[in-house]
Write a structure and sequence with these properties.
It is a single-pass membrane protein. This protein has about 375 residues and is an all-alpha fold. It has helices spanning about 1-50, 55-65, 70-85, 85-100, 105-120, 125-135, 140-155, 160-170, 175-195, 195-210, 215-225, 230-245, 255-265, 265-280, 285-290, 300-310, 315-325, 335-345; strands at about 350, 355-360.
């Protein structure tokens, strides 16, 4: 019994000493880790400022390993991975953050936004859309809706795009009335391509009535009327563009002439085009005007081009003037061909946002996806 008591008396101080030593070792290790985490963090920040992203990522990973509960480091890593195009690693970082139960609401919303951006940059549009929907009612709601709108436009889901645009307009982001008119025009084009001209006509008629300031629905409706042998309606639909001196009127000049000729309103069309040209000179309007001249009035048509050249030097107009010369005054074919080749790049349309050029006018730039970025005037006239 004495022996047992002696061992107990000896063992208690020893156990206490070992416990104290272990606690000191833990505290020491904690201090070392705490010193290492800030050191790794500042090292990564220094690399980042010096645009050494590989070294910065290594430093941030080291810092996260030393302190896995630091959410800010996870956000920094996720952003770095996304900027480098390592979307799978960025997704894993943000999904890890979302799986944490101790994450605050603000950080959870921030991680959800980061995850949506990861999917968006990676081109995983379906997963990006689902992630963006979860941001409704958060501070990221406006950005998420704009991103969803871009997804729907890229995938040509026009009804869904119209719904999101309506939400954005109600929230006070901006006016989307012209954009909504474009969506309807796209739906009308799709309906007509499927052979449903009646639906296309209905969509465009309602769009012109709802958004009279939008030129595109009126131009498409005039073209559709003409294909349905409704020349008089086509002329009446397009005429307001020229009487109001709409900037997009030159895009409809040739259609107006065809409608006027079929509806026997050439004199009215000529007066309308002359008045528009006087206020806003354009090669397209000039060509439409000359096409209304009678065959025996070719000299008058040539005079129109000559008058235009005196006020507005234009290689396109000069080429048209030479091509309309009488047979006895015609320039050699080689010269005519050389001039046409030289003027062809000048007859293109150019996107004001990205500089993408095309032979035809686009309402939605195929290069940068911007709306109404193509001026309705050719490169030579800009």
């Amino acid at each position: 019994m004495e022996l047992d008591l002696t061992w107990i008396l000896i063992g208690l101080p020893v156990a206490f000493g070992l416990g104290w030593l272990a606690s000191r070792l833990d505290l020491r290790q904690l201090r070392i880790n705490n010193r290492q985490a800030p050191r790794a963090y500042f090292k990564g920040l220094n690399y980042l400022l010096n645009e050494q992203q590989d070294q910065a990522i290594d430093a941030f990973i080291e810092a996260v390993q030393n302190d896995p509960d630091t959410s800010e480091l996870h956000f920094a890593l996720g952003n770095l991975f996304r900027r480098r195009g390592e979307y799978d690693r960025a997704v894993r970082v943000h999904e890890h953050l979302l799986s944490r139960g101790d994450l605050s609401t603000a950080d959870r919303q921030r991680a959800q936004h980061g995850l949506a951006l990861d999917f968006l940059k990676a081109g995983l549009l379906d997963r990006a859309e689902d992630a963006l929907r979860k941001l409704e009612g958060t501070p990221f709601e406006g950005q998420a809706r704009l991103a969803r709108l871009a997804i729907y436009e890229r995938s040509r889901e026009w009804p869904e795009a119209a719904q999101v645009a309506a939400l954005l307009e109600r929230s006070g982001e901006a006016s989307f009335s012209i954009r909504q008119a474009h969506y309807r025009c796209e739906q009308a084009r799709e309906a007509y391509a499927k052979g449903d001209a009646a639906q296309a006509l209905d969509i465009l008629t309602r769009t012109v009535a709802d958004t009279p300031e939008a030129p595109r629905p009126r131009i498409l409706l005039g073209q559709l009327y003409l294909t349905q042998n409704l020349a008089s309606q086509a002329y009446d639909c397009l005429a307001p563009l020229f009487s109001q001196t709409d900037a997009s009127a030159p895009l409809a000049a040739s259609t107006l002439v065809k409608a006027a000729q079929s509806a026997r309103k050439t004199s009215e069309a000529a007066a309308l085009l002359k008045a528009h040209y006087a206020r806003q000179p354009s090669v397209d309007v000039l060509e439409a005007l000359t096409s209304l001249e009678t065959p025996d009035a070719s000299s008058s048509a040539r005079q129109h081009y000559l008058d235009h050249l005196q006020q507005h030097p234009s290689l396109i107009a000069a080429t048209r003037w030479l091509s309309s010369a009488p047979a006895d005054q015609a320039v050699p074919a080689a010269v005519q061909k050389a001039l046409e080749t030289a003027s062809r790049p000048l007859a293109r349309y150019r996107c004001a946002a990205c500089g993408f050029e095309a032979k035809e006018h686009f309402w939605h730039c195929p290069g940068c996806q911007a709306w109404d970025s193509y001026p309705p005037r050719r490169v030579e006239e800009l």
